[in-house]
């Protein structure tokens, strides 16, 4: 049996050890406030409640923060780091810093988006875990967003650098770079973004939340092959560095021409969703009686090379058409559906043929070739 005097001594000893002994680390709580309504806070093991505007609550490990469609929250660990939590976000605090130890904060972002910024302590570390990635930083500013439809994670860095890991593989993302991670896959190679992109994304996230546009990537492809074919074999002295479509009416050298283009899509994931694909050519010259000449883009349905005869070409149904005027500018064809079919393997990628809707009107359009000032390009926007 322990006598009362001994109990008093034990209590005093425990109190002294708690205050003096470094082996009793003290967790440092975060401060949560609502910048816009509505923000809900669920302390670990307790009931959910709303955080009022201007109100500050102490947040610890195991607490959950939910920001609705109109809300914005701020989570601060004083003198270490701050985290803005944007609309339609669900965040759980998994670990808070511990006094006199490495100040590591671990957050789990189930959905939505956050912007993290370190403060005066350069050793402050933040790890953000999602369903598809782990993002870890040391003294930096970066944004993390999770697409609730696909559970993919996107990261963009404004200052410093972060390490992004998925499926056991990691990439380092530097200033003005971004990467994406799908569940069960390695991160994509970091891609450069324009300065100021972070601010645009933050405005978008605060006003609209995470949207599919945020996860879009783009590619601008030059053709792997580009040529034109004539209706007759000829040694006429025309500029073969250009691309011709229509009826060339020189009496000493008449012919009808069509342009062939092929693009390699190998760097775009086969399972990507194409949101926009545009074929663009720069007009060098225009001849003929009509101010506008419609040119149709057809998918080629067989292999070809630079020596293939025009009458030996087979094509599929028209993919796009554009009225090409006589102004020397860029003209474009919307080939979104065709590029998606190429990626999905629904249609083999043999390239495109450009043909005038009529080849007996005396109209011809001459476009810049691969070495010209406005060469052919295929511009693709997609979601990996």
Short description:
The chain has 384 residues and is mainly beta.
Any key phrases for this structure?
about 375 residues, mainly beta, Jelly Rolls, 17-stranded mixed sheet, 11-stranded antiparallel sheet, 28 strands
Radius of gyration: 31 Å
Give the overall shape, derived from the CA principal axes: elongated
The number of distinct β-strands equals 28
What fold name goes in the CATH topology slot of the largest domain? Jelly Rolls
The helix fraction, in percent, is under 10%
Portion of residues in beta strands equals: 35-45%
Count of alpha and pi helical runs: 3
Q: What's the CATH architecture name of the largest domain?
A: Sandwich
> What's the N-to-C terminus distance?
70 Å
Structural class: mainly beta
**Count of the domains:** 2
| Overall average pLDDT | 88
The biggest sheet, with number of strands, parallel, antiparallel or mixed sense and barrel status, is: 17 strands, mixed
Low-pLDDT segments: 7-18
At the first level of CATH, the class of the largest domain is Mainly Beta
Written description of the protein model:
The protein has 384 residues and is mainly β. It has 2 domains: 26-214, Sandwich (Jelly Rolls), CATH 2.60.120.1440; 220-383, Jelly Rolls, CATH 2.60.120. Helix content is 10%, strand content 43%. Strand 8 and strand 9 (104-118) form a beta hairpin. The chain is elongated and about 90 Å long. The protein starts with a helix and ends with a strand. Mean pLDDT is 88; it is low at 7-18.
């Amino acid at each position: 049996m322990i006598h009362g005097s001994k109990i008093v001594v034990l209590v005093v000893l425990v109190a002294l050890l708690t205050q003096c002994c470094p082996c009793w680390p003290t967790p440092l709580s975060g401060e949560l406030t609502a910048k816009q309504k509505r923000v809900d806070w669920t302390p670990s093991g307790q009931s959910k409640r709303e955080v009022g505007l201007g109100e500050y609550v102490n947040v610890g490990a195991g607490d959950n923060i939910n920001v609705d469609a109109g809300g914005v929250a701020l989570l601060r660990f004083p003198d270490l780091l701050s985290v803005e939590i944007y609309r339609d976000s669900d965040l759980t605090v998994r670990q808070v810093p511990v006094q006199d130890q490495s100040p590591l904060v671990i957050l789990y972002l189930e959905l939505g988006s956050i912007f993290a910024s370190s403060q005066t302590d350069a050793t402050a570390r933040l790890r953000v875990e999602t369903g598809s990635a782990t993002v870890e930083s040391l003294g930096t500013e970066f944004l993390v967003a999770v697409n609730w439809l696909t559970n993919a994670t996107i990261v963009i860095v404004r200052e410093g650098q972060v390490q992004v890991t998925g499926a056991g593989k990691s990439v380092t993302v530097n200033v003005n770079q971004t990467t994406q991670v799908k569940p069960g896959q390695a991160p994509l190679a970091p891609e450069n973004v324009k300065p100021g992109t972070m601010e645009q994304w933050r405005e978008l996230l605060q006003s609209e939340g995470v949207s599919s546009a945020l996860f879009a990537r783009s590619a601008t492809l030059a053709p792997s092959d580009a040529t034109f074919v004539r209706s007759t074999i000829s040694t006429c002295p025309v500029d073969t560095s250009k691309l011709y479509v229509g009826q060339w009416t020189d009496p000493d050298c008449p012919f009808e021409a069509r342009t062939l283009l092929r693009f390699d899509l190998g760097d775009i994931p086969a399972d990507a969703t194409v949101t926009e694909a545009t074929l663009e050519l720069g007009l060098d010259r225009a001849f003929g009686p009509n101010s506008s000449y419609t040119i149709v883009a057809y998918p080629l349905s067989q292999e070809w090379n630079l020596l293939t005869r025009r009458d030996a070409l087979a094509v599929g149904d028209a993919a796009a058409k554009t009225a090409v005027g006589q102004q020397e500018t860029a003209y474009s064809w919307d080939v979104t559906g065709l590029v998606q079919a190429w990626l999905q393997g629904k249609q083999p990628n043999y390239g495109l043929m450009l043909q005038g809707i009529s080849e007996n009107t005396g109209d011809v359009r001459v476009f810049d070739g691969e070495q010209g000032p406005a060469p052919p390009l295929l511009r693709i926007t997609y979601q990996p």
